[in-house]
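Repro:
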Amino acid sequence: MFFSRSIIFNQNLNILEKQDVTNQWLAVVNPNAGVKKCERDWKKISLLLKKHNIDFYPVFTEKRDHGIALTKEHIEKGYRKIISIGGDGTLNEVVNGVFRQKATDTSSITIAVISVGTGNDWGRTFFIPSDYEKSILIIKKEETFIQDVGMVCFSKDETTRYRYFVNMAGLGFDGLVAQKTNADKDLGKANALVYFKNIFTSLFSFQSVPTRIVVDETEMKHHIFSMGVGIGQYNGGGMKQAPGAIPDDGLFELTLIKDMSKWSVIANVNRLYNGTIGKHEKVEMLQGRHIIIEPKTPVLMEADGESLGQSPFVFTMIPKSLRVVVNREKLLSNKKQQ
């Protein structure tokens, strides 16, 4: 009798394994996003998804980079639609899972976002609201855009590693601020005041670094304070550091902030928010598909808000390789106004 029940149980398992999940959304949920705001709000989010008849299967990240493994595993099980529920770092992990799997072409997978984190900079470019229900209504429409994705090689623990990113990488001063801010997040501290505290303290510990930069075929050398390599326009919770970035033109926008005095940095923070940073005499904006950055002494890097490693860096563009759900109505309206 036990043997026959075992056969039935195994047959049921096989039926479950063969279920078609290609039209079901995989919800990759980061409970720690927004200093555990996602954990507190998950019941509300899940009820809203059910209210709007979104068929979803939730999985929960338990540690840093767990979202990469979960995404990769479930794509190999057949999932082709994924909702990232968390912050920019959660989205970055989902994207890395998409690009590290071998089951299907990356552009055949659709990614949507419900923003719960502290930065939500990727969503600013695509007009994804922070309101949960409004973002779910956008997901329900399933209007998509195929964007570029960047890959960066860097150094960590004396080995060369790589990471994909969808919004922006910050190097030098930006990398140091991100490292301090992420350490604060791990301690349960994250808000605008903490971020600006880290900017202020980093100003007095970071020195500009002589740096060799190659953008496609053009080589240059500068003393660099900070750098941004953008696919999207925003980073740091709303700073418009790459105002000319277009997420599907196959080009990075490189913002070089050269050897600027500490007080000049403070005096010009508003330029980062209003998109006029490129007009400063110490700032140079460049575009390219392939970028090499070799500081004379090691500097730190973050990508999509995630602290990763240190120089040297090599950036490679992967054009039009990721399908994302966007607020198409606002995108078209914004395009007409430009």
